[in-house]
Amino acid sequence: MKDKKKVLIFLGSLTSGGTERVVSSLSRYLADESYKVMVVTLDSAERDFYRLDEKVHRIAMNAAGDTAGLGKILDNLRRVFQFRNILNEQKPDILLGMITRHAVISLIASVGLPVKVAVSERNYPEKRKNHSMWEFLRSVFYRFADMHVVQTKKIAEWVENNAGAKNVKVIPNSISWPIARLEPILKPDDYLQHTEKLILAAGTFKHQKGFDLLLKTAVKLLPDYSGWKLVILGEEKNESESNGIRAEFEKIIADYGLTDRILLPGRAGNIGDWFDAADIFVLSSRFEGFPNVLLEAMASGCASVSFDCDTGPSDLIRQKKNGILVPPGDTELLETEIRLLIENPLERVRISENAIAVRELYSEDKILTKWSKVFEELVSSEN
User: Fold this and answer.
1) Which of 6, 113, 285, 300 has a CA between 20 and 30 Å from the CA of residue 127?
2) In terms of C-beta distances under 8 Å and separation of at least 24 residues, what long-range contacts does 238-246 make, across chains too?
3) What topology does CATH give the domain 6-174+363-380?
4) With contact defined as beta carbons under 8 Å apart, do 265 and 231 qualify?
């Protein structure tokens, strides 16, 4: 390309999360590939967890807030017009809207503008329901996107069958290796004795992540294994108080007298250190798009047990070879499989050694090259 093409990526925020990590890696890669890259967020920059490459232009709309419900129509219209003004100012050649709401806003705001629009679902829409307004808008506007990028074949089938999507590309998430070390830093040694073994889980404290199911399992098995602890890394206390989930977890832990055995330290920017310390990793999600945290755990050599939820775990795990899949929501079998790993260190080692192959299978070079081809296709399709 003689002239640098402009790519604008639009999402809600750069707080910790799978989509945000993908945008951080993708924006850096595209900037290195001689694109002019802009990342626009509805949220302010103050809550950023991920830092963008210095070559990436960051625009914060400071327009975050509730986007659901008919009562928010005017607020959403303001967001659309504010974003359209940014498009008019920046004049990108390609616009990538991440996640349903920002993808819909992208498609509406870009009407009549000379820009190719790609949208990317980052979860499984059948399970991850939006407000009915956004579900309706997706069904109307997704058909007008120039391209769709999703993480699994099952998500691709859904958007084709339910949202009129055409030109759908399947690109899984990549593993950035070694895993970046960010703030805040939580040292495993501050929570674990040298001789203690660790079962690890991580994610936002949402119903989707199924930590209530993991706790149901843990309170049964931990009393039988005095040298083991469960740590669930996730949100800080003040971030999850509003929905009461953290308080609910703390009550369950206290009721079973396991406050010194089940720990909720908060968010860790140095999650790689925790994977290194972990003996077993558990993904207890009810559904996913493509679970970055499972990919990172396997790349770190954790013996991993996961619910075989929609979608992603079965793409990563070859049953009983590089990990263990359990039927969704089956806490009894989850308990059984964790017990087997606790009691069989050689099995943990075998699975761990097989798991690290995902570093190569899902390397940034391989996955981001697929993204590069997507943008090349969009550029070459310009009228």
Assistant:
1) 300
2) 239/205, 240/205, 243/205, 245/205, 245/206, 245/207, 245/211, 246/205
3) Rossmann fold (3.40.50)
4) yes
- Per-domain residue ranges of the chain: 6-174+363-380, 188-361
What is the pTM (predicted TM-score) of this model?
0.88
Run of H or E including 365: helix 364-380
Model pLDDT for residues 313-365, shown as the tens digit of each residue: 999 999 999 999 999 999 999 999 999 999 999 999 999 999 999 999 999 99
What CATH class is the domain 188-361?
Answer: alpha beta
Rg of the chain's alpha carbons, rounded to an integer? 21
- Report the SS3 class of residue 332: helix
Can you read off the two tokens belonging to residue 349? 């080692």
Q: How many angstroms separate the CA atoms of 370 and 152, rounded?
A: 14
With a CB cutoff of 8 Å and minimum separation 6, the contacts of 71 are: none
Give alpha helix (H) positions in 309-357. 313-316, 331-343, 345-355
3-class SS string, 183-232: CCCCCHHHCCCCCCEEEEEECCCCHHHCHHHHHHHHHHHHHHCCCEEEEE
Give the tokens for residue 83: 């974003």
pLDDT of 153-172, one tens digit each?
999 999 999 999 999 999 99
* Distances in whole angstroms, Cα of residue 76 to Cα of each of 137, 296, 333, 360, 368: 12, 35, 45, 42, 32
What is the largest distance, in Å, between two alpha-carbon atoms of the chain? 67
Residue 42 CB partners (closer than 8 Å, separation 6+): 11, 12, 13, 61, 63, 64, 79, 102
**Cis bond before residue 19 (omega within 30° of 0):** no
Q: Indicate the pLDDT class of residue 73, thresholds 50, 70 and 90.
A: confident
230: three-class secondary structure by DSSP: strand
Identify the helix (H) or strand (E) that includes residue 248.
Answer: helix 245-255
* 6-174+363-380 and 188-361 in the same fold: yes
- Mean pLDDT of all residues belonging to the chain: 93
Structural contact between residues 98 and 11, judged by C-beta atoms closer than 8 angstroms: yes
